[in-house]
Here is the input.
Amino acid sequence: MENPLRSHYQEELTEAGCDEAGRGCYAGPVFAAAVILPAGFFHPLLNDSKQVTEDNRNLLRVYIEAHALAWSVARVDHEEIDRINILKASFKAMHLALDQLRIRPRLLLIDGNRFTKYRRVPHRCIVKGDSLFASIAAASILAKTWRDEYMRQLHTEFPHYRWDSNKGYGTKKHRDAIEKYGLCPYHRKSFNIQPDSEQASLYIDL
Here is the structure.
C-alpha cells in the first residue's frame, strides 16, 4: 500500500518537523523531537507513531537516525511540567530539540494547532500533521521511542506502576497501583490524578 505522507510542505526552505510524546501521561517527562529529512525521503512503514507497532517504531527510529539530514530529541521533566504546565512544557521541549539541530531550519512544521514562536523561524501548525507529513511523522517516531525507552528505565525503580507497558499513561493497572501505593516522585502532581475517577481514563497523547 502506498504511503500517503507528503515528503515536504514546500521545496524552497529547509524545513524541520516537530512533534512530542507523553503529553497526556500521569508520570515522567514530555519528550519532543525535531527532524530534517532529505528530499525524496521515504519509508513504507513511516506514519504517525500511534499507528505503528512498537517493533516497527524501533526499526523506523534506527532508519530515521541514519538517514535524516539532522535530528534531535529533548525532554522536559515532570517537575518543570508541574511548574509551567504541560502545554508550555511541550513547547519548551520542542524548542530544546530545535536548539540541538546541527542544521538551522528556515520553516517549522508543528504537529497540532498551537505553538510558541521559536526565534524568528516561521512555523505552520498542522492538525494531525504526523499522519500528513514525513518529517512530523519521523519526529513523532523519535519522540515516542526515546520516551518509551526512558520510561522503561524508570520502571526499574517503581515496577508496580508497570511503566514498562503503559509508559506512564492512565491505564487501569496504573490507576490501581496509584490507589494502592500512592504517587511516586515521578508523577505529575499538577494533573490532580484521581485513580478512582472515570475521568482518569480520558487522558490521551494529544
Strands lie at 15-21, 30-36, 70-76, 107-111, 123-126. Confidence is low (pLDDT under 50) at residues 198-206. The first helix runs from residue 54 to 67.
